[in-house]
What does this fold into?
Amino acid sequence: MSAPETVLYDAPGPRAKRRALIGAVVVTAGILALLYVAATRLHEQGQFSMDLWGPLINPGDENFQAVWRLLLKGLQATLTAAVLAILLSLVVGTALGTARMMLGRWSRVPLVGLIELLRGLPVVITIYFASRVMPEVGLNVGFLPGQNGLWFLVIGLMLYNSVIIAEILRAGVASLPRGQGEAARAIGMTEGQVMRTVLLPQAFRTMLPALISQLVVVLKDTSLAAVLGIYIELLRRGNIIALNLDNPIQVLFVVALMFIAMNYGLSRLAVWTERRLSRSKTGAKPELAEAESTAAAGA
Amino acid sequence: MEGVTGNLDLFWSGYLTSLGICLWGMVGSLILGTIIASFRVSPVPPLRVFGTAYVTIVRNSPLTVVLFLFAFGLPEIGINRSYYFFGVTALIIYTSAFVCEAVRSGINSVSAGQAEAGRSIGLTFTQSLGQVVLPQAFRTSVPPIGSVIIAMFKNSAVVGAFGVGGDLFSVGANLTSAQGYAAFPVLTGVAIGYLCITIPAGLLLGVIERKVAIAR
It folds into this structure.
């Protein structure tokens, strides 16, 4: 363990070292004891039996192939929904954000209202709204490829995330030096040209880490479809498998691991991109990514 | 429209149930999140490892997966409680990881001189954390903690959708599915209900932010 980056305590002397060691031993023992209790509990209830784990980890098991084929199908469904949702959100979000920045003080009022409204709504409500209201008012998604449920999920996610992306974009433009826009106007560019060729490209660059963090949120939110039961993605698929094999703990454990691995990878990518951008000399310094990663609590 | 106007009492009780979930979640996740944050900055390495592992695991799994593990996994090992209990617990476990990160970012923002000054007059780790650093850290953490809590209010709808029963989401789902009212007005009512939680919370947060803001 390397030295912690903290000023809360001194470089420890002999007594503090001894105390920290005692603390470490006590805490380790406590954690081990907790793990032991949990493990015994699981063992007593037969949760470690190969009957339950076999279909997931034993290639010789009769269900192994089918289970993993279904899980990968679920993973594919999750990724499809996430990618479609983030791409659509990017397009709509850029349009919304640009419109908000370019409209006059009064003409943007309805747009600001809409953005604030959607920001305050739970995503699960926007998805449910899409899945129940769209068919009712005759908005048909049947012409699009794939199941209806996929598009309800994607549209519901898009309603929320495009607004978030619009706000990230606005923060990105606001973080640019004023001189960028002024210089562009000084050489006679129209407002549209300034936005399109000068401000937006730089803002996108600055907000890349925040965008990747938002992708983590979208990926997590695709699993809301499992709660609503509108689309069979990874979690729902896992739940169906668990119902058939009667091993919810084991299957959900594997599903959780898959989500954690994907999201952890994406989070690392966001941090890495941020470091890379802040090292480079050109362009604005990305300062918003850190703030956005806290805001990623939105799920 | 009658789906809404005829069932205002249902909506009101749903609103109160949702508010209850939010309040339990807020209290629980603030306490647990602060404890985990103090683990993450403690001088005892195993505690730091535990805190980091907790945050990494919980932050990267969807709330729904945590919910499913609680509601379908725990009964398998003989722990049977109501969905309400499982839902609120899962919400607390999930949100506390984000609260932890918000508090920790606050702790990191307290200038080194403060803790050094505390130490130089002989305060121990617990004293300098509890009396010098945390009070300042909380002030800096108010905006991020606030946005985490507002996000949690919104996540309470997921707990509702999972089937706690009686909350705003269930009221909407029940009226549209079982009783066959038109979805648009009913779900608009549900949406307004949630906005009646998140918008006042946002305004309140703004007021608190101005109150505790410190120039550093």
Remarks:
- Residues 2-211 of chain B form a domain with the MetI-like fold fold (CATH 1.10.3720.10).
- The longest helix of chain B spans residues 125-163.
- Chain B has a mean pLDDT of 86.
- The radius of gyration of chain B is 20 Å.
